[in-house]
Amino acid sequence: MFFYSFETKKLNFLTKHKDLILYGFSLAILLFLLKWIELHFVIINHSFEIYVGLIALFFTALGIWLALKLNKPTIIEKEIFTNKKGFKLNEIEVQKLGLSKRELEVLHLMSTGLSNQEIAEKLFVSLNTIKTHASNLFEKLDVKRRTQAIEKAKRLSLIE
Amino acid sequence: MFFYSFETKKLNFLTKHKDLILYGFSLAILLFLLKWIELHFVIINHSFEIYVGLIALFFTALGIWLALKLNKPTIIEKEIFTNKKGFKLNEIEVQKLGLSKRELEVLHLMSTGLSNQEIAEKLFVSLNTIKTHASNLFEKLDVKRRTQAIEKAKRLSLIE
DNA sequence: TTTTAACTCATACTTTTGAGTGATTTTATC
DNA sequence: GATAAAATCACTCAAAAGTATGAGTTAAAA
């Protein structure tokens, strides 16, 4: 019980140094225990096998505990392919293309599947305004359709 | 050496069952060893402490080995952000939505920014056919526009 | 202060897209 | 060979998208 809570709660604080101290401490206890068990061995004679068995059991446990403590966890890196997180906007490309803040905004809303009308409502401007932005956008991106714009924008990390 | 190669190469094949068998096997060997060491103990008398020490050492080693064997490696998930590589088509979702091969094809071409007319030319069918496919596609995906379809399809790993 | 770029909006027009309906052919399955 | 699903195509109508042009407003920069 002592070892268990110690392991789980303070696992990260254990350094090689502390482990060594702990090991020495354990050995001291063990020597004492051995002598104690030996005494019983003298009293209860002919129970040699039991004595050996106890020692074997105890040291097996010690070995297990030691190994679990000293063994650094094997780290298996598992790759997770993610699209959404870790996005870094390509500001260089944005500047190179001369995209304005509003245009980038419209572009992003486009990519979410909104219609021009919906974008207009979301940004509190008229449909014509959005159309103008869209047209300028397509010209700057050198595309003909919004689907192309979205594709290119994602490819250039302008959005998403 | 034997154990090492066994660990690394067959790590995934080791089940609880096999571990138990291995443990039993080890115990059998140990009993034999104990008897052997005991024999030496009888011959070389008064070396009781050495005998105990050997057993202790051996079982500590056994414990360590056991722990290393039984201890499952800690799996640390590391996210790697990749856009293009490692794409796995979500066939389960495709089936769930009931998308046909042709519909999926049209969907993919849509996502590349092609117009219906261009898709029709690419697939050597009429514009009307593509429109029909698109309509069915939108119904199945429960969307209203192609941009929404593309967005949803990418989200569900139906394309790209 | 003038200039410039960004943002706004309108009108007119064209093209593309999408909805709805119906029908024929192909292909695979029972 | 019947059946069902998939693919094909047409026609109409409506909605959305896109083009072109012109113009007013605002805010920042020269």
Automatic annotation (TrEMBL), chains A, B:
Domain HTH luxR-type: residue ranges: 92-157
Membrane is among the record's keywords: yes
UniProt cross-references to CDD domains, sorted A to Z: LuxR_C_like
Isomerase found in the keyword field: no
Transmembrane segments: 20-44, 50-68
InterPro entries with a match to the protein in the record: Sig_transdc_resp-reg_C-effctor, Tscrpt_reg_LuxR_C, WH-like_DNA-bd_sf
Signal peptide: none
Keywords tagged on the record: DNA-binding, Membrane, Transcription, Transcription regulation, Transmembrane, Transmembrane helix
Name the record gives this protein: HTH-type transcriptional regulator MalT
Record organism: Emticicia aquatica
The gene coding this protein: malT
